[in-house]
Amino acid sequence: AKELTSMELETLEIAVVTLLLIISAVGVVVRYLRLPYPIALVLTGLAVGTLSRGALPVLRDLPLEEVRLTPEVILLLLLPALLFEATLHIEVVALRRTLLPVTLLAVPGVLVNAMIVGALIHWGVGLTWPVALLFGAVVAATDPIAVLAIFKKLHAPRGLELLVEGESLFNDGTGVVLARILQGVVLAGSFSFVAGTLNFFLVVGGGLAIGAITGLLTSRITARIDDHLIEITLTTILTYGTFLLAEALHVSGVIAVVTAGLFLGNIGATQGMSPTTRLALLTFWEYVAFLINSLIFLLIGLQVDLARLA
Fold first, then answer.
1. Which class for 62: exposed (0-12), middle (13-18), buried (19 or more C-beta within 10 A)?
2. What is the pLDDT of residues 50-75, one digit of tens each?
3. Cβ atoms of residues 227 and 68 within 8 Å
4. Distance between CA 166 and CA 103 in Å, rounded?
């Protein structure tokens, strides 16, 4: 949005390097603690943020506030990559076996969750029903990162892990669509059940269609290329291009990216890529997801002011 001066750019670089150092240090220390890595990052962020706002001049001088989580950063930069990486590892055959419980949890489950939270907020805080339900929709789609980390430590059954992971991929679409509908209700002051239902299926169905088309097209293209760097670049274009295209057409970018990832992971990666390329692809996206997840949890901790929260 604006041109950065050389001093501002240097400040931003210092902030990013500092965050990466903290992430690495927490990653090393957490190996010796019985604590999930995401939770350790949040606690570290809370501690560093509190100390930087308080008594330690050394931390106060670090420009960590230069890197902030904004809605635009989360939705346009971070979320598509996380969704795409998660779907690369899911086999459609295995997902099909859990399709019914995943669908029940990701669609009616999210709707019920949003209504329960909305009702508690309405009665407990006194917000109007539309605003309370909108809040419920925003928080209804839970994130499984910490849960899956615990599953891996406990060697939980793969079926249970797949159920939680599959539900988390599709609940975002339900939550986003529901929030968008309720946002219209809050702004317009009226609601049509028929129009809302049609809008829901249009947004979800449009996302499925766009993701299937872009995923299949990219799979066909990568099958004709034998260069892992170019193929990884094409998957990056697929991830962000699919999300931007879907959002421009006012359908679910979340559902579109998930669908594209499923097609690329089950068709493009398995049928059109060499073992070397497939390994390079999975390693690249694994690192991207690790870095983004780490930054998200650390920045959440840094940006929470414990004094204001209390």
1. middle
2. 777 665 454 555 555 556 777 778 88
3. no
4. 9
Q: What is the pTM of this model?
A: 0.82
Q: Which two tokens stand for residue 107?
A: 């669609």
- DSSP for the chain reads --PPPHHHHHHHHHHHHHHHHHHHHHHHHGGGSSS-HHHHHHHHHHHHHHHHTTT-HHHHTS-GGGS---HHIIIIIIHHHHHHHHHHT--HHHHHHTHHHHHHHHTHHHHHHHHHHHHHHHHHH---HHHHHHHHHHHHS---HHHHHHHHHHT--HHHHHHHHHHHHHHHHHHHHHHHHHHHHHHHS---HHHHHHHHHHHHHHHHHHHHHHHHHHHHHHHT---HHHHHHHHHHHHHHHHHHHHHTTS-HHHHHHHHHHHIIIIIHHHSS-HHHHHHHHHHHHHHHHHHHHHHHHHHHHH--HHHH-
Q: CA-to-CA distance for 37 and 45, rounded, in angstroms?
A: 12
**pLDDT tens string 3-32:** 656 666 777 677 788 888 988 999 888 888
Angle, CA of 216, 99 and 104, to the nearest 5°: 125
What count of Cα atoms within 13 Å lies in the side-chain half-sphere of residue 62? 21
